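Researcher: Please generate the 3D structure of the following complex. Treat every line as part of one assembly.
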Amino acid sequence: MPQDDDFARLAAALGVPGLLYRSFGNAPVRPGEAASPAPPALGWAMGPGRAGRPEAGAGWRPRPVAAPEAWPLLAPLFAPAAAGEAPAGTLARLRAAPGAAERRPAATPFLPDPLFAPRPARGAGLR
Amino acid sequence: MPLLCIASPKGGVGKTTLAANLADALRRQGRRLLAIDLDPQNALRLHFGVPLEERAGFLAGLPRGIAWRDAIRRTPSGVALLPFGTIAAAEALAVTAALEASPALLTGPVREMLADPALLVVADLPPGPSRALELLAPLASLVLVVLLADAQGVALVPEIESGRFLGLGGLAGPAPSRLRLVLNQVDQEARLSRTVAAAMARHLGPRLLGALAREEVVAEALAEQRLLLDSAPASQAAQDLRDLAQDVAAALPRVAEPVAAGWAR
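Model: Done. Output below.
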């Protein structure tokens, strides 16, 4: 269950392997999501009955949690760009853009009249 | 021999990013290139992969009389770099005061650099009016002013036309051909940016030397401490950069062929 993974990660992060999870019948936070495999460093916390897990007490040290390799979420950012056809230059596109007069539709030479109609005073419709 | 100054009326327009990548694009044309950072933000070095912890630089050492040749960094791109150096605010004021009292502290080394007939020097100026710009503009073959395609960019055009702009004389001044504009971060999908850019292109004509598309890959290149033509060569911005480099090269005086492998090769 996803919440079991979450709980195991929380126990490992807090360095409290004896922390127990008690279900109060609450619904999973991520319903319908398949349980993700536990990270290797959390294997002891995820094992059946947590056999062989280190117990809190004298001589116990929290097991280090493996750091992510190198920001995997950012990896696509640094992937080489796909080579393609060279696009036309921005300056050339700007120079080729029609002027404002050319862009204005011939059928609507003027701005619509409602733009210049007086606006009703505030609260005029509440009387 | 030519000196190309990159200036801007305000910060945040991508001047340093443009300076670094334009220097790289010009270097790829086979030129020996030296890039000087004259902006106390000391950010030019980051585009060339210089580690953050390396704090030494040329202008930062100017009050102590540092020799410019000793401050040169070789970079993987092949562009030789003179970083500004990392300094505190008080030290930045000391640099300004030193330039005010002894302009030759800067103009002397730059004249020495320009004496190399095969060298192209690209200077990244601080934003706005500055003593460095005042000293170097008379020596420059070309001053590129970087603007954004926004309302503030439009508002600056009358200043540029009238000659009150950055003390450079303006587009109608005595040497208008030495002052050219570049529009940066043009967003064809944004109505304001597209409209302003097209209007400025029509108004400025050949005085607008280039326009670069706004793309995430440009900022991502800096995040990687790489140059755009390495990290995203097929992007629109990279194409715009190559176009700009060609036009800049055409506007600059021709440099001599290097006679021997030098420090900026």
